[in-house]
Amino acid sequence: MVRANLLSFKQALGGLRAKIWVILDKCPPAYQELVAGIFSDTDLEFIPLTGEGNEATFLRQVRLLSTQTAAELVYFVEDDYLHRPQALAGAVAFMQRHPESDFLTLYDHADYHDKYIHRLRGREYTEAGLRWHTVASTCLTFMARRGVLADTAEVFATYGRKNSDLGLWLALTKSRVVNPWCWVRCLGDGLFFSASCMLAWRHCWRTILFGPRRTLWVPEPSLATHLESTGLAPGVDWDVVKTLKN
After folding, report:
1. Could you read off the pLDDT of 142-191 as tens digits, one per residue?
2. Is the peptide bond before 221 cis (omega within 30 degrees of 0)?
3. Does the pTM of the predicted model rise above 0.85?
4. Cβ distance 149 to 159 under 8 Å?
5. Is 181 exposed, middle or buried (0-12, 13-18, 19+ CB in 10 A)?
6. Which of 72, 107, 183, 205 has its CA 20 to 30 A from that of 194?
7. Which of helix, strand or coil describes residue 225?
8. What is the DSSP letter of 101?
9. Is 111 helix (H, G, I), strand (E, B) or coil?
């Protein structure tokens, strides 16, 4: 799975010049060898850790990517995603064309299509056969502007204090959290969704009340997917993507 992820990620870069920081949290040596072999022509920096866990390594990413000076656009990527060819090149081009965009996800999550919390009328553009539109939240694989990430680092830090990924995104996009009736309606999606509205207020009330509303964009059809059987992005044959040769 990790090899398929890395191969698809390399194809997703297209002709982009990138620097990649690789966090290896209690990973065997074979992982570093695999990454180094696939990205032999890429600027790599390995960060070996001894078992800090998901929350701590995510906060490391936030600190690192918000303070580095190699690029204005940064991308968080987990090791259980598939990307379509040229996906990241397309994402960078979108962010450059639309300077008002703050964040971007390449993952058209299945929840966007059947959960009340995501049934929102947002902004959209249709470009090069893709419908780009704003959404309420995503997971922890996403693109950001370095300056915006630095400004919102404290919100992302709440993930290490038991906020959910949904909760921190709802605080940033200010979707559903302002109207308590929406919290009740979200119960139809499952307890996690209503609880995340409350977590957003518990951890990020200053951002909700006083911070700017951030935009999070996604393409449809999807340019990436989480490799989870119940969460595959619809409308794409991911078996074909998985078998593409580098």
Report:
1. 999 999 999 999 999 999 999 999 999 999 999 999 998 998 999 999 99
2. yes
3. yes
4. no
5. exposed
6. 107
7. strand
8. -
9. helix
